[in-house]
Amino acid sequence: MILLQYWFIMETLGIAAIFAFFLLRVLRSVKRNRANPIAPPQTLGGRVGFGLLYILRIIAVGLGTFLAIALFVMVERSIYLFITETRPAPSEVSIPADLPFEVEEVTFEGGDNLRMAGWQVPSQNGATIILLHGYGGNRTAMLWHAKRLVSAGYGVLMYDERASGESEGTYRSYSWEDPRDVQGAMRYIKTEADEDERIGIAGCSIGGQIALQSAAYYPEIEAVWADGPGTVTARDLPPPKDPIVALVVVGNHLLDWLFEIGLDIEAPAPLIEIIGRISPRPIMLVGGGQPHPLLGSESELMVPHYAHYAGSNAQTWIIPEAYHCDGPVHRPEEYAERMVKFFDAAFGITR
């Protein structure tokens, strides 16, 4: 889209126009006061009050300028995100030459009769883990997890989410419609493996959020590993801690509205309303301790927030040096060990 190529230029021009508007008003006010000067008060109290009023006017102009720019950025950023976050993210996917295990290229029917493309590895222990990548990526993003799970005897089914990688779809819906594809993945596993095959799910970022949604909807999923799960809707966000975060929350509500209107779909229930349905099935919520711009770290935001609504079946693991879904980079051995032990405990597998 040509418009997106010039979006940041238009954004800059919009901010400059708002700033210029307020600056011109200030200059006009100064010019008017010079032409018609007001005699300063003669008393000390009057001069102090006059000075305070002048300072308050300056502060008011500054706050007004800031709020106007902030509201403009919030609205135009929401529109920009809607355009970019709903566009398909196709990519070619090939099996890495150095992959230490064999995968079978598979397709299955997801929601809305979409063809989902993925890789499957049969299980050696009667349990298969569905692996879900982050937003706009493809199945290769979950190869690290697949290697550790396969080496522990688990089967894996990793696939490209709708309108991503090599899977079908005319738009992405920020996970609103993705749980139906997980249901298709479950049907495929039960058909191709064994009706008694047990199923777990693991995901990163938006994949972690889809994993939690899916477990809430489908009791066949016996355990959930969610690393850096995002929000389903703005209602999932915790109460804002400062005015900047409050604007971000308002912007997310606007973005939800744009998704509903622009895609003509109904917003799903927020995760905080449905995550409790997963109980007593185990959940592992993983997050980074390094802060995100403006919002803070996952250790302060979504991980404890979701754990509160999930209940006692939810465990949390904060990786202090991690930022978002990069725990395997910082603590590969510990991450692999914890993930395998989590699923082993869930499925009653002893080693």
Overview of this structure, please?
A hairpin with a 5-residue loop joins strand 2 (104-109) and strand 3. The protein has a domain at 100-232 and 268-347: Rossmann fold (3-Layer(aba) Sandwich). It has 351 residues and is an alpha/beta fold. The protein is built from eleven helices and ten strands. The strands form two sheets. Strands 2-3-5-4-7-8-9-10 form an eight-stranded mixed β-sheet, sandwiched between helices. The protein has a two-stranded parallel ribbon with strand order 1-6. It has helices at residues 2-5, 7-35, 44-86, 143-151, 179-192, 206-217, 243-263, 271-274, 302-310, 327-330, 332-347, and strands at residues 89-90, 104-109, 115-121, 127-132, 155-159, 164-165, 198-204, 221-227, 283-288, 314-319. The protein is elongated, with a radius of gyration of 26 Å. The model has no long low-confidence stretch (mean pLDDT 92). Helix 2 (7-35) runs antiparallel to helix 3 (44-86) and helix 3 (44-86) runs parallel beside helix 7.
What is the element layout, followed by pairings?
Layout: H1 2-5, H2 7-35, H3 44-86, E1 89-90, E2 104-109, E3 115-121, E4 127-132, H4 143-151, E5 155-159, E6 164-165, H5 179-192, E7 198-204, H6 206-217, E8 221-227, H7 243-263, H8 271-274, E9 283-288, H9 302-310, E10 314-319, H10 327-330, H11 332-347
Parallel strand pairs: 1-6, 4-5, 4-7, 7-8, 8-9, 9-10
Antiparallel strand pairs: 2-3, 3-5
